[in-house]
């Protein structure tokens, strides 16, 4: 018997990846507890979708004897007359998590809080939940650490933990150092890492740069004060370094290009099932994928897997990349597979296209002339930053013809994925990747 309140709570939560799909809660288990006042029950809730897919979601819930006025916004339901709250929103509950890391020992119910050496945690830091868009749930501990609790959980390693660990141990300056993680059996449920105090995210900076450009109708991207190209170039350099470190830390192999082309074509077919508007661009996209089939063997390695400007943070010590979990909709087994580094380059390329079009969508143009002018500036901004990024990513070798074919296919594949993502999560934004696909294959 499962609690009635779970399904509506999960369904309305930002982190729920199954939006738009019918599901029922088919099981739940308390796999651990943290603290005692309140007591946090860490529940794994099994969801079964109408098409038979099954997923497990992690719900840390704090249980109190009485209603807590200050947690009204976080009330999830009531069990046996006791109020149950979303523990991520609950400072006291999160303080207990931090203390558990401080002890570095196993906590009741099989949860293990594992610490890496090298950082003295501030155990008194105040917890505050991250308020932005995300697929998991993060809590900041003062200016010291960030705890990310994974929502969709699967057995085995979580690539966010293992990739951060490898990069931290390799001394990378382009990630927030990993401080520890939470395990339950063979699952990794959360990750504690360095709080990047001086960070501002690349997406926000890119939007500001575009707004600057749109405000100066007669100027080109390189002429306005908020030009982003030198940052785009730094991002390219940083990504090249991260890819090099990942090649050294994880196994590398080769993938037959024909297999990659087929996988991309299948992803397109599946996406058309959800976003029928993609069908009119299908022939063009298939031709782009087919061109990859002749490329022989593609070198593959551990990559980020879902890179975009929102996963980049500019700090006084340079650019950092976050969230190495891969695309949230992909099964873990696929997210762990080595892939071509061009997937990450393609993700950034798409993001350089998204930023100007997202700004344009949020600023209705007064007339057709302004709209036309903005479309030209948007294309200019995207091209300028894409070029700066690519030039420094590729370095002296530049981009060869085979690389270009592969990159183009990854860019189209990413734009197709984005159509699916937007249709399910932000239908108002669907036109951004859809028009992107049209431009790419048109
Ligand atoms: N170490 C960090 N320090 C400061 N802010 C961070 C850190 N890691 C992530 N963030 C912020 O939190 C946001 C969400 O983190 P992310 O890892 O992308 O979560 P999710 O996997 O849920 O999408 C990021 O976009 C970034 O703005
Ligand atoms: O950050 P997540 O791992 O949750 O990634 C998912 O959500 C992203 C949006 O938050 C989505 O990114 C898309 O929108 C971005 C602007 O919000 C844009 O910069 C990206 O280029 C675009 O792909 C991402 O695809 C999705 O997996």
UniProtKB/TrEMBL annotation:
<comment type="similarity">
    <text>Belongs to the aminoglycoside phosphotransferase family.</text>
</comment>
<keyword id="KW-0547">Nucleotide-binding</keyword>
<dbReference type="InterPro" id="IPR011009">
    <property type="entry name" value="Kinase-like_dom_sf"/>
</dbReference>
<dbReference type="Pfam" id="PF18085">
    <property type="entry name" value="Mak_N_cap"/>
</dbReference>
<protein>
    <recommendedName>
        <fullName>Maltokinase</fullName>
        <ecNumber>2.7.1.175</ecNumber>
    </recommendedName>
</protein>
<comment type="subunit">
    <text>Monomer.</text>
</comment>
<keyword id="KW-0808">Transferase</keyword>
<keyword id="KW-0321">Glycogen metabolism</keyword>
<keyword id="KW-0119">Carbohydrate metabolism</keyword>
<keyword id="KW-0320">Glycogen biosynthesis</keyword>
<keyword id="KW-0067">ATP-binding</keyword>
<keyword id="KW-0418">Kinase</keyword>
<comment type="pathway">
    <text>Glycan biosynthesis; glycogen biosynthesis.</text>
</comment>
<feature type="domain" description="Maltokinase N-terminal cap">
    <location>
        <begin position="10"/>
        <end position="90"/>
    </location>
</feature>
<dbReference type="InterPro" id="IPR040999">
    <property type="entry name" value="Mak_N_cap"/>
</dbReference>
